[in-house]
Every structure is written in structure tokens, then in C-alpha cells.
Structures
1.
Amino acid sequence: MRTPFTGVGTALVTPFTKSGDLDEAAVRRLARRQIDAGIHFLCPCGTTGENPTLTDAERLRVVELVVEESNGTVPVLAGAGGYDTREVIHTAGEMARRGVTGFLSVTPYYNKPTQEGLYQHYRAFAASTPLPIVVYNVPGRTGVNVEPSTLARLAPIANIVGVKEASGNVSQMCEIVRAVPPGFLVLSGDDALTLPLMAVGGHGIISVAGNEIPAEMVAMVEAAERNDFAAARAVHARIIALMSINFVESNPQPVKYAMAAMGLLEDTFRLPMVSPAPASREKIDNVLKELGLLKGALV
């Protein structure tokens, strides 16, 4: 049986209607598409889900919809992070009451805590809930890096079960794998670095590209899990252009535009996120066309 939060988890986008409201029908549709494609777990209300621009009520509603659509078939790792530890604990408690399996918790941002502050933040969060917590390290967005030594301190806390490592620093990824116990999950936060991380002992990916191509991401990661890196590399080579173009502008602008071009949702964002510039759209369209993913040409 698969350990929860290993393999491929998709960092779900949040679809909005043309008028800018939460598109509940599309939330359900996209979650079902993921499950039908064989995804291993779902991650609503993260960065890719435009979490900062969702209201408290909307975050909880997205979680409810994804949990209902999953109906226990796959774990739901909900985004519950922020710069106020008390507020994180409160939000997590409300999400727990709606049936989530665990939490993906981005490091406090803007106030830039020290390593000791990060340790105490996650320690307090862990003490407030019996549910598992995956630390989310993305220093390019938060302004603070969770060092391998801090993760090694956090790892003995029973319900801190892993890290989504999105530093982009392959050397740091290798050091984390070396520093933490074997059962502590080290997940890539960058699609393109999934295979390098798994080759040194990582446990999978929390993916942006999974929104567009969940089955392909599952095929790549499951091949790596079988140590069939030749097959994994073949999938990687086929989809690397999409994994890269998703970051031609700030995430989630490219992936949501691509999904709109695929006919999966409306090309609607919450400010300050906006639809990609025309030059970026052209690049995204070209990649989608090469992969047969444009609406009317799905494969």
C-alpha cells in the first residue's frame, strides 16, 4: 500500500467564473479529472490555487468540494500556512473539520523568521493537530529558507512527515535527503527537478504540471519509483517543455491560461494575478500544440 503523500500530488488551481466568483462546478470537475487519471493525492489552496486572494470562506469551500469529490479515494493535503502561527492553527482546525487528510504549510513569509522561529512555528502547529504536516519551503516566494538542519530538528516530531522542497537548489535537496530519517518524505516542489530528487532518495512531487497532464506525471514518477529511470526519462523528455513553460511568467498565470486553452476552465484570475502577456501566450500555445493538448486536439 502506498504511503500517503508519496508519488504525485497536484497543486490544484482554483477556477473562477468569468465574473470572478469561485467556480464550484469546475473545482469538482478538475478534482474528478485528477482522480480518474490516477493521481496519488490532491493539494488544494496552495500557491498555485491563488490562496492569498481567496477569502476564508472560499478556502474552506474549496476544501469541502475536493474532499467530497475524493470521497476517501485519495488523500487531500490542504494548504494551511502563513505568517501568523495562531491564524495558521485556526485555519487548519477549520479545514480538519471538513475532512482533510493533512496540511501543506508554507513557511511564514514577509516577517522572515530565523531558523529557531521556523522550528517553533512548526512545533506549535504540530502540537495543535493530530493530522500530518508537510513543510513547504519556497524561499523565492517567502524570503526565508528552511535549512536542512532545521528540517532534521523537525523530523522527530511525529506528525511533521515531510517537506515540499522548492528552493531549486539541487545541492540542498541532496543534503536534506541525507540529513532527515528515511521515513521523512522529501518531495520536489519543481516539476523539472523531480527525477534528480528521486534519484537521490526523494519521494515524488507536488506538481503544477499535474493540473494539465496528471496521467503523464503519474507515469513518470511511478517509473522512477520502480527504479525504471529509462522509462521515467522518456516521459520527462516528452513533457519538459510544458514543465518549463509553466513558469514563463509567475505561477499560476501560465498553467491557468494553458488549462483554459485546453477547455478545462475560464481564463480568470484574482488581482494581482493576470492572464499572461501575448508573447507568453504564444509560447504556451506552441507547447500545447506540440503535445496535442489544445482544445479540440486532446490526446
2.
Amino acid sequence: MANIYGYIRVSSADQNESRQLAALREKGVPAKNIFMDKRSGKDFDRPQYKRLVRALRPGDLLYVPSIDRLGRNYKEIQEQWRILTKQIAVDIVVLDMPLLDTRQGKDLLGTFIADLVLQILSFVAQNERENIRKRQAEGIAAAKSRGVRFGRPAVSIPEDFGSLIRAWEKKQLTINEVLRRGKMSRSTFYRRLREYHQ
């Protein structure tokens, strides 16, 4: 008997997947058959997607909320679609695009239309990914030009850092005592130590 599956993807851990989950539940996808990755759509190297593909059998039905949830790489979306529909022989329904329902129009015209729509949507998904990256890069560059600094603030070196190093090297102080007095982590200490000796 064929099983019904669903696949959800969000780009990061802080994004909310509830809208996608609700759409799959509305279609009657059992909770145990919903696979979700919190990863970028740049490729298909995603653990839950791989588990899903291993679980699928010929005749199963896979629901995907939208094509960009499947992925954002034009060539790889085309390749995965081929693997799923031709090699594994599952049906796929893309919920926000009724033309991408492999249960419908299995004749030549239906297949042609579905393939055409898939190519257009795959292109749009990758194009949007590239636009997002471009906007991020522009935003970072603009912030840097305004003097915004990224990353953790630099830990300042205590004024008596040289004497702390000498005492530590002479084994008059333990490393823990040096870290406590210098108010720094071990990795910061060793980085500053290298800089100090250079």
C-alpha cells in the first residue's frame, strides 16, 4: 500500500515551519512521515531529505509546500525531481503550484507542461537565492562603511600582560591564575601570547 509523505525545509533554526506543517497536515500526511530540515536549499546534502529518499517506495505520494522548499539550486532540483519521479517512481504534489502534481496529466502534453513549469520555478528559486545572497552582501558592506563591526568585541590586554607572561613562563603563576587576572579565555591568552612574542 502506498504511503503519503511530506517534506519541509526552512533555511535556519530560527525560522518557523508551522505554516508548512499545517499545509501538510491539511493534506492528511501522518506526523511520522513528515521530514524537516533546517538547512540552506543550496544543495541536497540534508540529513532528513536523505532519510526521506531512503523511505520512499514506488507509488508513494510526496507533498512539498513549494518548489523552493525542495531546493534552490536549478540543476539539482531538476535532478532530484527525476530521481524521485522516474527512478523511485513516486508522485509529487507541490502545494502552491497545482500544475506540479504528477498524478495529473500523465499524457505527453501534461508531462510537457509539468516539466516546463518545474524548469521555470527551479530557475526562480535559484535566482531568489542568488538575490538574497547579493542583498546580504550589500547590507554587510553598507554596515561596514557606516563603521558597524561584526563578530565579538576584541578583548583588551591588561596593562601588566608582560609581567603576567613572565611570571607564567617562570612557573610563578598557573595558567588559570593568569587567565583569571587577565580576564581572558585560554584561546585568547595563547593568541595574545603569540602576538606578544612576535
3.
Amino acid sequence: MSSYTISNTKLNHNRVFILQKSELEKRLDPFYYVPELVELEKKVLSKQPKKLRDYVKGIASGATPKTTEFEKYYSDEQNGIPFLRVQNLSPTGILEFEDCKYINEETHNGMLKRSQVSAGDLLVKITGVGRMAVASVAPENFEGNINQHVCVIKTGSKEISETLAAYLNSDIAEKLASRRSTGGTRPALDYPALLSIPIIEDKRILEITKRVVEKKKQNEAGAEKLLSSIDDYLLDELGINLPEPPENTLKNRMFQTTITSISSNRYDPFFHQAKFVDNIKAIENGKYPVKDLRVIISGELVKGKLPKSEDKEGNNSVIQINSINNNGTIYLDDLLTAKDIFTKQQKLQEGDVLVVITGATIGKIAQWKYKGEFYLGGDIAKFQTNALADNSFVFHFLRSAPMQTEIKRNVTGATNGHLSPDDIRSFPIPIPPPIKQSEIAKHISGIREQAQKLKDKTAEALKEASKEIEKILIGK
């Protein structure tokens, strides 16, 4: 029987192609047989590579303890063990800890004992949208754990792990990994698929990656310098002069107050410390009048909803506290999905200001600027401002040093803090004229954009490095 061919030269032959029955392997899905990927694998295999399994002395993936039982499983940065997720992995091979979660030692040594991470271990992304097999290496003296979307590979050597990470983060390895993934909306690599990835050893790959890491450090130092200037600019524009913190002595930690000053507030000493009183005075003594947040909210302060077990796996994407990044942006990958359990008010609207009200990341502030239909999950509240205030201005002010201090002051509860709606409504907000608010918000957004451009240079450097690595590996 003669073979069929496609004569139309205008077609994209990586999207429309014919496969002979004799060419079928174990998989039947078309993506596995995309001509570009098949040809790439042939080129790699011609180099007689090893497989990832040849370097593995041990492998495990983790799990995610219930966030609804925070006190049982989780902790804070000072007392907890790093709990690594996909967003902590980096195509530079260096772990990112900016938005790291933490579990307590009982969880680390109990429920998640098998997925513990030590210095020199190789960490690989095995589930989720975007790049597959993103890899990083645990640094010196590291102890941590992982969730179910990451696997830890014991290679027995930090040098081997770094060399493997450099290769896995190349575009060649990413394509080979993606070819092996299964699943539609949430691709995944099972262990056999992951361990079958062909590995070409070449020390030059690691040297190229180290060069990119150095550029990354320079770019991030520049970005951090820009970001650290935001508070100085904002407080100067508002005429807020923060007092110098007193020396941390026993005498300075002792204070007296009157029954009149505490009669309408909390009675615990923490709330009435001089540093908090002075902080509020600094805000109130600025250039502009100060109003409680309740005065400038349009409508109501809306609390999110945490789906119950029976309400999960629906068609609605839910923003949770672990979706909110430290920089005020929101991580939209690997979201919880739920059934139609939300109110109209809990649907996120452009401009919404989000406040984390419970948990280790209490006080995180974000602003919703994304397209699509998403809903507000548990432990988060949101609001929009009325004509008195600009959403973006209020977002930036809530992230400032004096407001983060005020937020800490209002947290109640010992192990799992909480911000009540009444406390949030009482936050003091300076109200410059609308034009001034818009000017301040625009200027701060501009600084953040400059910082992001510096960070984006790392992505550009990675692209160039990937081309260089491809030329080394397969002579392209």
C-alpha cells in the first residue's frame, strides 16, 4: 500500500501531518508525533545520551497539607521549614524564596517525611501549565519540603544536580519533557516519562547558565534599588515623616497609658505600644486630610469564600492566599477550581484591592488587573474605592511601611492571626486631591515597570543562552 502525503505547502506541517501506522509507539495522541519534536529527539539520540534515570539515587514528590487547617500544618518564616512550590523553581537553576510558604516541623518530619529536600538535591517541576521540567538545585545547608507538583531527585552530588538542572532548563530538554507529558488543561510528567528524558552531558552548559545567574543578580540588585525608593517617594509626597525607632531596651519597651485612651480600643499592651501610636500620628500629621477606609469604600468590603471539599473541581477559578505574591501581583497558574458557589460580589473586578486577612501572609496587598472570570477565595477581602480615592493610590499606600505597621498592630490571634473587617475599615488613608492621587499612583507604577524591565533582561539572557546551548548540543 502506498504512503499518503500532504501536497499543500501552505499548511503548517507541525500542526497538520500524516503518521504511518508503523511509526506509532506507545502513545496515540498527536502531540507526541509532531514532526519538529520527533526530529529533535532523533538528533539528541544520535549523540548517544544517557537517560535521567541513570543519575537518580532516589526520587519523591510531596503533597499539599490542607490550608483550612493552617495551625496544624503551617508556620511562618522564622519558625517553619520552606515548603517549595512550582513558583519557587527558576530556569536559572537557582531557587527563588520571595513567595515561599512554610510548614511546621511536625508536618516536615511526619506527613511529608518522604519528600524532604536537602542541600544539593535536584528539584523538577512535574505538573502544571507552562514550561515542563523546570529545575533548580537546593543550596548549601538547606532543609525543606515540596508539594505534589514538584519532585525531589537525590543525585548524590551537587555538581551533578547543577549540571542536570542546566540541561533540563534548556529549550531542547523542555521540548523533550513536554513531548512526554500527558493531560490536557494540567499537563503532567509521571516518573517513567520524566526519567526517560535523554541527557546530553556537557560542562559548557553549566558555565553558560552560571553566566546568566550573574546577570540575574545584577539585574535584581538594580530592580531592588528602584523598588526600595518607592516608600521614600510616597511618604515625601504625602508629607509623612516617620519617627526614628527607639533603641530596643527594657526601658523603652515599658510604657504607661490612660483608661480614656484605651476605652474604645483593645486592652492588650501590644496594641498600645508607643511605636504604633507614633506611627498613626505621623500619618495624621501629613500634608493631607486622613479618612478611615470605610469612608472611601464603594459599596461593601467583600470577604471571599473557601470552597468545601464537595464544592471543588468546578469551572470557576479561585484566587487563594497562596496566589498573592509579595510584590502585589497575582499568580494565576495552578489555581483551585470550584463549582458555582460564589456571589456576584465575590467575582473579581478590574481595580479591586485585595487584602489577606488570615494566615502566615496576613497583610499582603494585591490589585486585580487581569482578564477573565475569577473569584475571591477564603481568607481574603476586597474592595473598590469611591470618588474620593483612586484604587491604585490606595493599593500603593496600603503596601507602604507605615500601613504595614498599622496592619501588624491590628492583627489578633496568636498562632493564626486575623484581621477583622472592622479593623480594615478603620485603616487611616490620606486623601490628596484626585489629580495628585493619580500622579502618585502613576509614578509608583512607572518605578515598578522599570524594575520589571530589569528583571525581564534575565529572561532575554536566558533566551540567548538557550540558543548557545542548542548550538553546542545539536550543532544548530
4.
Amino acid sequence: MCGVFGVWGVPEASRITYLGLHGLQHRGQESAGIVTARGDQLYSFKRMGRVADVFNESALDALPGTVAIGHVRYSTQGMSIVKNAQPFAVEFAGTSLAIAHNGNLTNAGELRAELEAAGSLFHTTMDTEVFVHLLARAKGTLVDRLQKVLPRVRGAYSLLILTPDQMVAVRDPHGFRPLIVGRAPSGGPVFASESSALRLVEAVAEREVEPGEIVRVDADGETSHRVGASLPQPHQCIFEHIYFARPDSQIFGARVYEVRKAIGRRLAREEPVADADVVIPVPDSGTAAALGYAQEAGVPYEMGLIRSHYAGRTFIEPSSSIRHFGVKLKLSPVEHVIRDRVVVVVDDSIVRGTTSRKIVRMLREAGAKAVHMRIACPPTKNSCFYGIDTPTTAELIASTHSVDAIADFLDADSLAYLSIDGLHDSVTGRPGFCDACFTGNYPVPVPQVRFEGRLTERD
């Protein structure tokens, strides 16, 4: 759950990257960082917090050059502390190198133990640092080194790597995470996790970095290289379309907003509510799916829940006499839309179920005659190990409860999920998606249990 952004040959590169990271802020709010290059030096600034809180004029002035990479982080590997903020910058093979990573390596523990046994000293707890140590032990140009070491790495990675004289963009052979190539008004290449960030800086999206592709940029232009001779079937993260990507982005060859509306239409056909008076979304991630549901069902669509965009990650909570304070801080019911009506509530997913339970109670307290929950994906039964932060499988309510039991827990009049076939039929664009969080079909071996420091794997 991170976002990466990079520009080459662009005036005020640090400020352009700052804006680009704003366009990716939804992908990570824990920390933000930018590294620029000028001459034979790299300049780095990173802190904990959101982009607008981390950078000010003086910080950006201290990042000179026409080349930059940036990163926003939501940790899936490594503690949420400043030393794990990215881009990660090191002295490397007689020069300097910075790396920004979106994804998650499933064999990071195994590789780290091997490298430490051979004498490598790690400075962070991030799986990203594994790349640096592997590259340091290889020989040749940066592209040569990448082609040698990346076949050893398993899992998800969309990378931007910067040295004083080149930038390299890399996407793993399965293509789990998105990575877009665009063109700035100045003509220089721009890389971003999503097209929404390109639009913000007036860059034009050109294509995706292909699964298993290495794109190198230097003073002589751009060249494309491959990771390995043959590629596996693509396994793009289907959850990007359901929840994670911004609805105004285009990823994996499809428009996210249109995919979410199609999901909602299919959900309405599969799981109608005969006497529904109104369809409302859980904003913001359920909005497009709810609109599709309402259009297909012929039921009025209303914003029955209003989301506060000023609710931060931390707040001062009053006494326990105010029930469900956290949810009320973020969502507020529009009572005249809900009162005395049969309400269909469309949300993107249910994880632990605690938030959904509070939403149902909130709607009942606002006077709803009945509350029917409709979920724009299949039951989430398995953890993600490829870069989406999810609880352990035991914490996922659908892994231990039937749909009827979850409905009882939520106190909903009914609960229904989109089918797995309905999900795949709704997602257009390039074929080949990872749906392991729903099916348990992991395309790359993943950690299953951790016991006394030993890691076993599930094929």
C-alpha cells in the first residue's frame, strides 16, 4: 500500500514530484519522501506524515535538480518509523542510489537471513532494503545487476531507482502493482503508480511499464529491458479495482470508475432487494458501485452517509458515553434520506466487520425501516501478501463465519456479496488477475505461519 512517482529532465523536479505524491496520497499516509539528483549527488528529504505536512518551501528548495523520485508509504513490511520511510538512499558501488518500492516480497525473510549470514548489515526492517544488498553483490551495470538478482526475488514490486546519472523503473513479472509511464509538457518521462498523479502535473499517460520490464532513462534517452527470458501469466491485483486505486485513474488497461460501476450493476442483478426505497454508498470507495447498483435496479440513489474529509488518523476521544465515536467522526447519516425507508447500503468490502456493524446501527438509529448490506466483491477470506495491508486470516470475519452469521453480527436485514464470476466478468482491460484474498489461490508462494522465528510457506 504505497505510491511511487518519478520525473526526468523536468524543471523544478522536487515540486513536480511533491504534486505527484499528492495525487497518490490515498496509497499511503504514514510517511513521504523525495530524492533528487544534480551533478554527481543525490539530495534526500523524508519524514513521517502526509505530503503537505512533510514538505514546505525550504524542504523543496533543498532538493535541487531536474530529476527526482518520490514515495508515499503505508507499511506492510517493516515498522512505521522514520528510518523505514522511502525513498531509501545509500552509497552504492562508488556512487549513490535511491530506491522507492510499492509491493511486498514474500521471501524477504529468507533472503535477509541469507544476506546477514554472508555479512550484510541491514539498517531498516523494510523488505525494500533486500534489493539494495542483492544489487551490491552483483556485477555489471545497474540493468545487468537487476537482471541477475530479480529472478531470486518473489512477490510484488513496482520500483523506481535513481542514481546521479540514470533512473530505472521496474515491474515484477506478475505485474501485481500498477506502474504508468507518461510524458511531461517538457518532454521528459514521468512514472507514477496511477494515472491520476500524472494528470495533476499535466503529464500525459502513454503506457504501463510491462510486467517483467525494466525501463532505463539517462541523458541518451530511454531503453527497455526484460527480467528473465520467459514470463508467467500476469496476476494483476484485482483489489486495486475494487478499493485501492483512485476512481479517476486508469490501471491495468481499464478505467477504475467504469469498472466499479460495472461491479455495482452486476451486484444488482445477482443480489436485488425487491422492496428497496433507496440505494446509498459507504463513501468514498463504495460510491461508484452504489451508483451502478441503483441504475441497474431502478432505485433512487442518494448520499445517505456523508464522509468527513477532515477526520485524521489520531484524535482525542471523549468519554465512552459517546458510542461508536470513531465511525461517527468519519461518517454522518442524512436522516431525511434514511428515515422510514428500506435502505440498500453498498460498500466495497468487509474486513473484520466491526465498522460495518457500526454503520448498520447508525442507520437504524437514523430511522431506517430496514438495512440491506450489499458488498461489491466476494467475501474476503485470505490475507494479501503482495502489498495490500490486510489483517491476518484469523481476523477476517469471512474466514470463520458464514454469510448468514456475518449478517447476524452486523444486525443487517440481509447481506450479500458479489460472486467471484461476477467480479471477473465486471473487470475489463488486460486479462490475468490475482484474486487470492477471495479464493486463496496464491500465484506466488506466501508466508503461512510464523512460529519461533521459522517461516513455512503455502504453495
